[in-house]
Design brief:
single chain, about 160 residues, alpha/beta, Collagenase (Catalytic Domain), four-stranded mixed beta sheet, 5 helices, 4 strands, about 45% helix, about 20% strand, globular
Length: about 160
């Protein structure tokens, strides 16, 4: 179960983005068999903002598509005082809409597909997945594809 806070710091009309991302996140939680209550923030940002975040927090001075900041390293670190009512914040996901739109064109698929991909990618990072080795990358990307395919959000 997720409580998602959406913030749009861009000039783009993001109508419908919240519905899409909510659907994707709910499917991800179902696939991951997580039934605890979490809060996640999704912030839509410009190229300038995501480059600033990347430079400040990751030491990489370039534009990127999505950055996640998890409050916990993995699900085992999350403590629930009252599992029925307590909502624990997983972290924040920053998505650069300019890059999302460019990548959708570059990869030849819809903006819906690209946004859904970036959102689930960010959420899986918050849930402890990473792609710093070939094995971990295969696992994470297979999970992303499973979630998106379950929703009929395919390439092309």
């Amino acid at each position: 179960m997720l409580d998602i806070v959406f913030v749009n710091e861009t000039e783009y009309d993001t109508t419908g983005y919240d519905t899409l991302i909510t659907e994707v996140f709910n499917e991800a939680m179902k696939v991951e068999q997580i039934d605890k209550y979490y809060e996640v923030s999704v912030v839509f940002v410009s190229k300038e903002k995501i480059q600033e975040i990347n430079r400040t927090y990751r030491g990489i001075d370039r534009v990127t598509d999505v950055i996640s900041f998890a409050l916990f390293d993995n699900e085992d670190d999350i403590v629930f005082e009252d599992e029925e009512e307590e909502i624990t914040t997983l972290g924040d996901i920053f998505i650069c809409l300019d890059v999302m739109k460019e990548q959708a064109k570059e990869y030849g698929h819809s903006e819906k597909r690209e946004l859904a991909f970036l959102a689930v990618h960010g959420l899986l990072h918050l849930l402890g997945y990473d792609h710093d080795t070939n094995e971990k990358e295969r696992e994470m990307f297979a999970k992303q594809e499973l979630i998106l395919n379950n929703l009929g959000i395919t390439r092309g």
